[in-house]
Fold each of these.
Amino acid sequence: MLTDNYNRVINYLRISITDRCNLRCRYCVNENLQFKPHDEILTYEELIRFVRLCANLGFKKVRLTGGEPLIRKRIPYLIEEINKLNGIDDIALTTNGVFLGEKIYELKQAGLKRVNISLDTLKKERYEYITGVDAIDNVFVGIEKSIEEGLQPIKINTVIIKGFNDDEIIDFTSIAIKWGIHVRFIEFMPFGDPELWGPSKIVRSKEIEDIIRTHFDLEPSINEHKGPAKMFRLKGSDGLIGFISPMSTHICSECNRIRLTSDGKIMPCLFSDVEFDVKRLLRGNAPDEEIMTFVKEAVKEKPHRKYELGQIKKCQRSLRNIGG
Ligand code: SAM
């Protein structure tokens, strides 16, 4: 079991398998869109080795994200290989869902257990405005097919942004009931251009919860996958809603994760620009022990708490780049 300097057990690895994405979400793209050359992106063989070494250190859970993970070729192969590794008992995917419908069968066959789908609006025009692409119907198909394939639980992640979708909170709660899935409301983090996507866009979880309580009865529920979401069951249904509150609650005490960027940097903390270049070791034929020691050192660099509430500074990388 790997612990950091503050006795948090670190057993969750989030991997951005590509920095490329088929969408251009306005609040996510905070830099000149320049993709890394392909040869800078970790190969599947490098990723599998890295996950194996992390599993040796006690990591149990892996999430594949991006960029958009489903635009990388042969992702079922990667899932299958990670699934074979001793110690990894949970493999999940975070996707925008556009290609999910066409890929869900082979993903499940490869051993995918769970999927998180990012969706910030249920309205076609708004979807096109925020993502730059007319693809909301594909996302709905992806959700339906994931339900049909029996992936459990299916989680929709919705970033609530003032003036954009804060009038859809009840609609999103209703689909949790209708589809018997989890909808998690995530506080917008102002990583981007302060003029356009700054702190004035934040809607705090408490405000969202108050709006929902005017229409629905909420019963506290445990978060079976640990993590920072505060979960509630919608009374009389299978649907759950949750709140992830990086801007109004110190979620750092619950942190159990490190991130690996697509270009092979370990990021001990989402809110810090500190990175550890593990690609250098992976490509330099470093022995397993050296890489494992390097991971332990990165984990020891996890800060206790990196930011003051409501005051996230601009990160060098966007979430697309870090792996949201
Ligand atoms: N393409 C995949 C997807 O859409 O889920 C994975 C990458 S995306 C960067 C992961 C998540 O980060 C999405 O749910 C997105 O809404 C979220 N995200 C990006 N920028 C954010 C921000 N500034 N504040 C809160 N969430 C953000």
Amino acid sequence: MSGHGTPIPMTSARSGPLKGEARVPGDKSISHRSLILGAMAIGETRITGLLEGEDVLDTAKAMRAFGAEVNDLGDGEWSVHGIGVGGFAEPSQVIDCGNSGTGVRLIMGAMATQPITATFTGDASLNKRPMGRVTDPLAEFGAQSFGRSGGRLPMTIVGAREPVPVRYVVPVPSAQVKSAVLLAGLNAPGKTVVIEKEATRDHTERMLQGFGAELSVAETDEGREITLTGQPELSPQAIAVPRDPSSAAFPVCAALIVEGSEITVPGVSQNPTRNGLYTTLVEMGADITFENPREEGGEPVADLRVRASLTNGIEVPTDRAPSMIDEYPILAVVAALSEGTTTMRGIKELRVKECDRIDAMARGLEACGVRIEEDEDSLIVHGLGRGGVPGGATCESHLDHRIAMAFMVLGMASQKPVSVDDGAPIATSFPVFEPLMAELGAQIRRDNR
Ligand code: S3P
């Protein structure tokens, strides 16, 4: 069962060349942050290109529950009338963040230093995920949390009445944890310092500066040290959300593995903390050009041109993991259709995503005839080369949008069709995935039961 409704089984089959332009939706990370920071500013923030996927819509509902006025103006344009740092009202209902770890963790951070109590829940996937990584630092600000065993949702957070600023070294490479601490730091007096040993996506830092907060970043012996001065007045912004490089990864990789393809993907964020997959694909021999590099909405973007390519397996550098953490499932698909072995190490964080992504990819690839090796922290895929993957299996998506999309892309270049038991979670991040891929020429359909 999907968390939000009836499962949607899907199948994709060997496709002809993919051609055309893929206009992928807005960036999920930036969309969540636009709504949350908009709610914490005083006045009206205007957002264009917001991702209207279920995850982000759940965050919009949550911001309303905390007292902000959030309006859908049509065509991806939204307005948020913020209530200021420290201005959150206490929600009268449980906050349901659906499938979204980013949504719940960032919102917990934002409310944890306000004198209010809120209870959070999610779908079957989110309610299995660890929240201790966020509630531990929030406790240092003075917030209390009461959740299920193992620090799982549903969980109630009692915000600190008199928050104190913290200095926190993030123990796992996680932009969600870093961001939760920074958002909590907004309503604490004095300076909150967050140190990350490995740089993770930096949208929160960029956007806090854009909203007028005093925030500085220094490279130190301990790592990347971010210092935020608490209790600023945030000024509302006009935000143009760039297209999501993590969503773009699916049509890009499909075009690489489907013979004769050539597509363009305009306006994709090329933020260096997000573009590890593209660096890796080019190293594997992918023909991708990055045209018209420019800045949009404070983020570097480019138009991608992608041509079908014969790719070779590589050893992905472990220090690249944070910049491509969501892209390992689709990289594993490209690896299966490459010559030679692709080794992905330092990826144990994949085990606590929307599902255990190492296990989900390993089982599905094996079912499709690909030889893999795995351990706690790595996945090794023995490539079968262009056209070499048998396919012909039904893979489980485990309520995980990226697993479902990865296997749908695999089917487009396998000998026999590939199915997923449930494609419904795709709507969390890429609601137009099926029509967009079909428009390019992909054979993808829903299976009527
Ligand atoms: C995200 C951070 C990453 C990523 C997620 C989005 C964010 O999670 O996997 O899809 O927007 O901050 P972690 O912080 O847990 O690595």
